[in-house]
Protein 1
Amino acid sequence: MTNEEKIKKELLERFGFSTEQIRVARERRVFLEVPHEQFRRVFEHAVNGMDFQHLCTITGLDDGDTLAFVYHLARLDGAVLSLKTRVPKASPVLRTISDLFPGGMIYERELADLLGARVEGLPEGNRYPLPEGWPDGQHPLRKDWKAEMLDGVYPKEEVKSHG
Amino acid sequence: MAWSLFNLLIFPGFLFLFVFGLAMEFVDRKLYARLQNRIGPPWFQPFADFVKLAAKEDIIPEEADSVMFRLMPAFALASVVTAFFYIPLWSTQSLFSFNGDLIVVIYLLTIPTLTFFLAGWHSTSLFSMIGATRTLTQLFAYEVPLFMAILAPALLAGTWSLSEMTVFYDQHPAYAAFNIIGLIVSLIALQGKLERVPFDIPEAETEIVGGTFTEYSGRFLAMFRIAIDIEAVVGASLIAAVFLPFGLGLGAAWGFVFYLVKVLAVIALLALLRTVLARLRIEQMVIFCWRIVAPAALFQLLINLILSGVLRP
Amino acid sequence: MANFKIPIGPQHPALKEPESFTITLNGETIIEMDMRLGYNHRGIEKACEERSYIQAMYLVERVCGICSHSHSTCFIQAVEEIAGLAIPARAQYIRTIIAELERIHSHLLWLGVAGHEIGFDTLLMYSWRDREVVMDTLAALTGNRVNYGINTIGGVRRDISKEHLAGLLKTMDILEERTKYYIEVASEEITLIQRLSGVGFISHEDTVMLGAVGPTARASGVDRDIRRDDPYLAYKDIEFQVITDTHNDVYGRTLVRVGELMQCYSMIRQLVAKIPEGPVTVKAPRKIPAGEAFSRYEAPRGEDVHYVKANGTDKAERVKIRAPTLANLQSVARMMENNRLADVPIIIAAIDPCFSCTDRMIRINDTAGRRKETISWQALRTHSLEWYRKQGVDFKDLNAKMRQRMKA
């Protein structure tokens, strides 16, 4: 049995996922979609129980009514498990994973700035990557965001007087 | 009176030093470039840089102490030029001389470093102040070894006058060989005094932007630059006079050629030093000076103390 | 002495790109560091959603000026995976050769920058002179010194001729000799070792926990290299060693990079020996079927990852880029602890930061209400010629003179 099938089997047996939820895209690439309630449990098991000890990044997707977040976890043998979970766009609340991956904080800040996710438990810190004074409620990576939405809002007048 | 004025302003005074300083800066830059596989600047580059800087606007920060900020470059320049008059160059006689001028010259050469400190401190910029603190820290590290290294030959000669010292070594050229440790120590200290790699800690641009000179621009910066160039020449001349007393009795023309060769050799050594080394950290520099350079200078002092008893009963 | 804060950046001589580090100092000792990123965001991820795949590829290539091939290859790997394209073997080899040349160029560049940060400009001048050899080779093979533009969806745009391959071997000999010299310098030059060893220490555990990648991680004994662990391009066909080190400091990071240079030369020799004959490209569809792919690539600075989601049109639904520097920056704060101000530049430089890679997103157009006008290339050229003529410089004249000179 190949590595990918082992990963698939373990996840199927342990959490009782249906085979549609889990997809082996190619050698060393496994994609899995998890309901938000179950996400933390699966994530913790992948990290601590299955040795996926490296968080490559977190991708945020705007899927219309929902925001999807893909956590790309890698293992030393090269296998990558992409865990996807969804939250409604109206209340995009996530729990932080920075307790497991302190380095993941910056990826969560990026989600907060660019997609408007609210990450619970994320320590205070500088925002990333948008500048100070960026208008609230504008999240550039959302599909309905247009650059014109900044007209007259940003940059503010006083910024210009510095020049 | 007219002759003194000529001496002060033209030769071997300010004008000569100005040209000589710029020429030596060119030699240093060209050598540095060639050692790094670069082409290097044309001969007039230091002068062009000076003219360009002098033509630029002077900006004095609002927060800075304006009087000190303006005065310091002039102080630096004046003190190095003054020091030059007491150093015998191509004969055993310097322009002015008295017993104890050796100490005065060393002190006059300390003044530029102090002006760097004050200039940085009164700029009140964060980077300048860090640079100023480093300047002073560094001064304490190299100044004592330099003092000891230069006093040792004087001890052997039994005089505190530079001119009389050169007379002594001119009569006993072989004795200069005893001072070789002192020569090395003072070369290292001079490099520190000129704040060049590996001792360019006070103005390390990748750390503290421009250090003490961060806020300086225009004429004031040009004045500092020329003061440093002249300081290099004066320092090299001092080392030449104290440690390399050769060819002094051959008349003015040959003496002058010898003098040029000696200064060039010192400048070349300093350029080589900054090519092959990386910048030290301030605490590494202090440790290096107190653990290695200062004991070496002390050792030199000890040798000369014993020698003066043996050779000059 | 009381604690005080010193700003390194956004504009600072040690940083070649704008990022802001605020460092709290006690005397010369660093107490803590605060980081502010994002000055370089250009909206590339968003812009990719509005461009066709081939346009996006060129845009992605411009994420970074140094590891441009890394980003474009990583991106099209994902696109090709979704489209189900099998790339000809020769194209894979050519991409790998360029990738390794890029690594050589990047590591030599780093060596020079590191030298400059510790006030050792001679090292900068030497290594950048040698870097020119690689740059010239890259220009000969691809036509460009940076942003090589050799990739295309379905293969590469240019073949490499036999003569070029032979020339490549000669270049490797020259560079190998030079690198041996640098290894000698790194192991013998006292001030260099004094300035590098023990500086920017980070333990193996912290490196793993903070998710560092590439040479930064490998210098702390993390044996991780995408080229070996998750092979792509032609890396499974060749043999190489993953260089690791256990110094855990800046000196270790230097040794890893110099060691990797030596590996690069041997890899390129193997690639040149093994490169198969055949076509260099397959036809790629304009529209990419719906799907998603996650692609990893060992860039000179570490693991570069791209995620692409396609929706069946000729434009991507989402492109996510995570450059290696973003992963490495997290560990910089840890490396700074208990070091000295003098070490700040070299610690930052030691992760080989590439901030323009890290930042990619912000405003696309200027909205401050300034005059906006589109000038065609030709009009711009005419305008500039006219402007210079008014200043008394006539380029027509100059061109004619130049031609005369050339003849004479």
Note: Residues 153 and 179 of chain B are 6 Å apart (CA to CA).
Protein 2
Amino acid sequence: MKKLTLAAAAFALTAGMGMAQTVRIATEGAYPPYNLINDQGQVAGFEVDLGNELCKRAELQCTWVKNDWDSIIPNLVSSNYDAIMAAMSINEERKQVIAFTEDYLPPAPSSYVALDEGANLETGIVAVQTGTVQASHIADTQATMLEYPNIDQVFAAVRNGEADAAFGDHEVMRPFVEDSDDLIFVGEQVRLDEGIGIGVRQSDNELREKLNGAIAAMKQDGSLNALIKTHFGEDAQTYE
Amino acid sequence: MLSHCTDPSALQGLAWLSCYLTTGNHMLFYASFGTVLLLLAITAPVALLFGFGGAMASRSRIAGVRWFGRIYTSMVRGVPDIIFFLFVPIALDQGFEWLRSRVYCDPSVPVRQGNEFIVCAAAKLPLSTSPEWVHQAYGIFLAVIAFAVVFGAFAANVLHGAMNAVPRAQLETAEAYGMTPRQVNRRILVPQMWTYALPGLANLWMILIKATPLLFVLGVEDIVYWARELGGAKTRAYAYPHPDWRLYYFLAILVFYLLMTWGSERIFDRIRARLSRGQATAAGEAMRKAAT
Amino acid sequence: MNQCLQTIQDYGLRSLGLGERLLPRSGFTLCEQVTLIGSGLIWNVYFAALALLFGFFLANALAVAKASRNPWARKPAEWFIFLFRGSPLFIQFFLAYELLVQLPRAGIDVLGITVQTSWMTRAWAGALLVLMLNTAAYSAEIFYGALRNLPKGELEAADAYGMAGWTRWRRVVWPTAMRLAWPAYTNEAIFLFHATTLVFFSGFPAFQQRGDALYYANYFADKTFNPFIAYPIVAGYFVLLTLGLIALFGLVNRRLNRHLPGAAKKIRYRPNLIR
């Protein structure tokens, strides 16, 4: 696809170039408000709105692909799609395998959630979602880690006393905490990553450059901050 | 979409429920039952074909073919199916694209670049310009192949046993009539083996039904995927917020599977009776006695 | 080589919580993958062995109940077998976990003694329970089939010797039924062994990163983003263990058939009978 997307950009190039080939963007669709499946069964959320806007600015034709989190990177490197926008934090582990664009969200805080203030976060039992950066973090602490495949089970574990606290992305947990009358945020927030970026293949420099350009432009004119606020609320972290 | 569903937050009770159960993604959930049935309907014959090939191969007189048949059946059966599904479909996909890249691409460009697997645009499967349904269909196609490889190995075993169970005397009679080995296979062995194969194949069908929840591992949006997605707690960000309802969705799926297996058993009982007619087995004998 | 020995020392029993606390984080070697996945296999063997052991007794009771003429014994057994044979194990795990977490955390008071229930949600107990009930249902169907296919002559011979009730059951009915059921039961054992990979894959949480072979394989695949090393390693382990299981059940088969000259043939893994 790289040849194509590029081609579209390179308007100065040969006149014979046809329509831009489609850029396929993968997302998980299970991590609201970043990405989710709406009531019409379509992917929606912050990343979908942002991705569509970026594609428009970069003059790319984009389609969305739903992919399971576990295989989202293997499928990118085997070229089943061209980009990942799935709340994927930029970190060293991933940078060895794929490339990231500039961050489109500032480093996201991770928070602890528990039933009461006194929960033991240092050496107690902490529930996390498998395969997240938060899970890697808890594995390094003295806490006893309990891993669940999805966020519902994580909260269920806290509610029924299975775990003393849950640890996860602040923005993902916030709506649950606000909706509930028993869960509260406790302890200090932790920053675990270098922000969230779009994952692309390491060989795919052209696409990365185009997306970088669009992200920079959106940061510049404040439209990215506006989009963040519509999806994450007025208090969300934005770019300076 | 029902007419009164424009403002879900104002609804209550049954009206709310009726709207909730008819949202777009619930429709996809109901359709996914169709996906599962479709997949079963396609996989069963394909797996049977693989099985038939495997069974014939392991009876072959050519040592190489025979060993291939034996190794295929015993390897696949020694490994849990879920493990297969975790890497075989990606491997298949890369295999197909590699083959196509030899035809459509410049062969001097390596397909593996570092950890990346890249083929030229013309060799991509499906082409990245293809509409979304082609991608979905291709995903289902890979799932069917993966299932068929695994269940074909089991079917090969059943059929192999059934072929050995056909009474020697029947085959010898055919030979005495001067039929060639090929004719014996086609006219006697294959038609006669089904009654012996049926119990095993019936079981295999049951196992296949019960393996379909693993479809979501293959990236197919099946009933388990939607049950998780819809059942998970929905916050106020959604039009229809609700707490964690996965239990109810999974109970519905449980009922679906129980009905499927129950119905299948009824049908197999009938086929069994039909195939036993006139056979040299205890069941056939019993029918003969009952008739006189 | 020495490095690998060190790895085995550090991670060989990691799945039980012994050795290094932290899993390897980067620069994964083949040795680390083979060792950790092998360590996870301990859990697969644990689940399979105990579920088969307990399930075997339950299955015998269920088979007798299903063969009984008393509807109060027969109906519950039939329903139990239908429920567990008719639905995917995957769904059973999920539902069982959901039910087990409903148990009160403080324990249940039985005649003044508080029975702890919180350990039931741990995989070692909860998943074992599900696997046991599941294999009991499948095996019961196999044993029930065997009971119905007992050769009439042997029962008549037992009657002729004046055996009745328990003696007849213990000396004639049960050994013969086991002999008939054994090949199919071998297949069931293999299937159950393979099913243990689902424990951490669906429902039950992994505690302190102590999981089964698939859990660690998944960990590596997730960290290296390469499914083509870790999963084939699990596959290889399972082929070896399946062969071991077949050999073990073959020994039992030979013992069951020892009085029949020439009948104690090698047991063939034929998954075609009942499951």
Note: The first helix of chain B runs from residue 13 to 20.
